[in-house]
UniProtKB/TrEMBL annotation:
Keyword vocabulary terms for this entry: Membrane, NADP, Oxidoreductase, Transmembrane, Transmembrane helix
Example of a GO MF term: oxidoreductase activity, acting on the CH-OH group of donors, NAD or NADP as acceptor
Pfam families (UniProt xref): Epimerase (PF01370)
Residues annotated as transmembrane: 239-258
Coiled-coil residue spans: none
Domain NAD-dependent epimerase/dehydratase per the UniProt entry, residue ranges: 10-200
Entry keyword annotation includes Membrane: yes
Name the UniProt record assigns to this protein: NAD-dependent epimerase/dehydratase domain-containing protein
Family to which this protein belongs: Belongs to the NAD(P)-dependent epimerase/dehydratase family. Dihydroflavonol-4-reductase subfamily.
Amino acid sequence: MAEKEEKERVCITGAGGYIASWVVKLLLSKGFIVHGTVREPCDGKNSHLKKLEKASENLKLFKADLLDYDGLCAAIDGCTGVFHIASPNLYPKVSNPQAEVVEPAVVGTLNILKACEKARVKKVVVVSSVAAVILNPSWPKDRPKDEECWSDPEICKAPENYYFLSKTLAESEAWKHARTSELDIVTVCPSFVFGPMLQPTLNASSYVFLTYLKGSFSVDQICVTNIYKICVLHYTLEVQFLFLTSLLYIYSLGLRFLDIRWT
Ligand SMILES: NC(=O)c1ccc[n+]([C@@H]2O[C@H](COP(=O)([O-])OP(=O)(O)OC[C@H]3O[C@@H](n4cnc5c(N)ncnc54)[C@H](OP(=O)(O)O)[C@@H]3O)[C@@H](O)[C@H]2O)c1
């Protein structure tokens, strides 16, 4: 795709994370000015971002926790699009999952959406997960789980399922908020994402993958998606908010994208 002539600004939350780093790299390569939020800009785990091509001119990092509304507003100000990718998980260790995982995911998502409204952002891509889809025992057995399917929050309340709870509540709150506002959002529900890492430290899905390769656990069935596919999907969604009159844009309005169909 041709590089953009005018430099448009987009914000990516949790820019130093596994998926977000690839999205930052891709958007920089396409000529965007990228505002990335990170919790610790000087931490070595985010150092790879500054080494990305065009980062020295076009990447600006903002220090912001998901619970820091003012910090998020500063990062989103002036942006036409936002990719909300940051989300806590249970790796490596969490002592209070409600406070450390569920609350930042849910309140953080709402903070992002409010900051987007304030900044009159054109399009927000919220990265959810199949975790918000698959824990639904009442779903008909003969129907593959699709975009209509939601994990049951009560079942997600088991201690080992707090990540599922955080993603389910964060995505459903995002949709509730979107219905009462002018915001144009889409959500993406990837499955287990793997592929090359740009960041120097292990993220949760790469850790799980490594543990699997080492034979520490086995699974009957695992559904994976490739990091490159996620980036292409993100870029396609991003393109949609730029070409407002395109057919793609019309199709994307208010949609939930499920990466795969789960049986
Ligand atoms: N990887 C997968 O297989 C997979 C599958 C489905 C969905 N997803 C979703 O995709 C997104 C990215 O996942 P990933 O695998 O790339 O994870 P990751 O590498 O662990 O990245 C998560 C990012 O979120 C940030 N974060 C966590 N808690 C935060 C908080 N309270 N305030 C601000 N930032 C916070 C982290 O920042 P710090 O570095 O400061 O901790 C990190 O940058 C998440 O929304 C995840 O749920 C991932």
